[in-house]
Predict the 3D structure of the following.
Amino acid sequence: MSIDRATVAKIAHLARIKVPEAEQDHLAGELSKILAFVEQLSEVDTEGVAPMSSAVATTLRWRPDQVDDGGTREAILVNAPDRAEGFFGVPKVIE
Amino acid sequence: MTYIQGETGDWEMVIGLEVHAQVTSKAKLFSGAATAFGAEPNSHVSFVDAAFPGMLPVINGVCVEQAVRTGLGLKAQINPVSVFDRKNYFYADLPAGYQISQYLQPIVGKGEIVLDLPDGSSRTVGITRLHLEMDAGKSMHDQHPSKTYVDLNRSGVALMEIVSEPDMRTAEEAGAYVRKLRTILRYLGTCDGNMEEGSLRCDCNVSVRRPGQPFGTRCEIKNVNSVRFVQQAIEYEARRQIEVIEEGGTIRQETRLWDTAKGVTRSMRSKEEAHDYRYFPDPDLLPLVLDPDWIESIRTTLPELPDDKKQRFITDYKLSLYDAGVLVAEQARADFFEAVAKGRDAKLASNWVNGDFFGALNKAGKDIQDSPVSAEALGGLIDLISDNTISGRIAKEVFEEMFATGQPAAGIVEAKGLRQVTDTGAIETAIAAVMAKNADKVAEYRSGKDKLFGFFVGQVMKQTGGKANPALVNEILRAKLAAG
């Protein structure tokens, strides 16, 4: 599978990353190479092998339904570039 | 079948609904912050909910249990292994840039809901799936001229997204679906179903087609927050699509918004490109594996569900389908009825509970819990009717007094002297007085104007202050009038 220029532009837009047109060809080549490298895995016969979700034999840990966090508004907002009346402030989103 | 008449012939709606139901739990799906509604902004937020770097999600076991319980209540298949995925999009109230959701392997698979339609018939609608996901925060666009304010209190609260098959054909069916789903969720205790607070939100997928033809292109109306709006939005959207097609246009698959004020749906162009969510399994969460014994142990704790309860009310209490349906729509109402009906005439109990009792509660804007008349007190009133102490008509008067003062029926009847007159002598005296006073009307009656009978009954009741036993009055009056 290879990635073309248009796909690079689309992924960049979805990820909100600015990629100048001059770099798109170069990136398409790089990404295609990465995909080709990973594609080697498809040569392995995985017939009847369950997908592996973790490298360690462990199960998902559950927490009890207990309120033991929150109430730290200052710590939540302290790094916000903009805030007002306890809210985060962001540029107006027009719907 | 209910079709819509267009300019060029009949059309049929095809409707599927996606309901987002907020899971009833104390803490959030992946953090220990509280879920309580209405707190100060950003006060119920953990570092996980605000997506601070390095924070890891840990799943709340009760949220999992609630999803399984809901699945069992919808007679659905519970998947022993399900997987959490990241749904990627950018929005100011989604701090991580992705929502943790379930995509290819949801926790609950196919199930069903039986709709109770207004004409008494029922219809089964398929459930495609139910999955667990986290809610986003809340954006407020109208607080400041150039800024949007974001509150993350809701961020991370557990939601169940419940997806129906495209099985509904009218807006009324869609309304009945939302009401029934809400009833089931409330019986199960897995979602409070409060649409005003946003605990239950509905996305409506609507398309139209010629009867018998394949499905048309659908549009999705996002975030409709009342049963009435669900019906109005679907009705509007179907007519809009028919108009477009009949004028030679085509329907573009898109996301639309219900404008409550204008009563129209309109396109949400900004969301168009966001549809490429690039789902992938969340590397922070292992698959959710459920022990079959644990699932069965939850099954044993399910309450009697509305459909079963309704059937039992019809069989055991000999109630009509309609009466039983009204009673079971809310668990508290059904429980109240059963307490009143215990050892009494069930039909009379049902009439009083569904009639005067709920009429008075609605008028006073009260819930059953705050009712000034308890089930025992209402039962006491019904006992007085059953043993002929008071007539049904007087009982209504006594009930109003009970509702206003909280006094028991027997006390009011004694204090106001409302005991029914069953003494035939007293009734005969009253009848004689009425007949003497209205000799002309007696003559008219006897010459064939038998419609006047009602007039005489009314006069006798008036004469006895409404306390005469109506059956005895009828009987004696008929005999006396005929005797001439």
User: Anything to note?
Assistant: Residues 171 and 234 of chain B are 6 Å apart (CA to CA). Chain B has a mean pLDDT of 92. The first helix of chain B runs from residue 61 to 73.
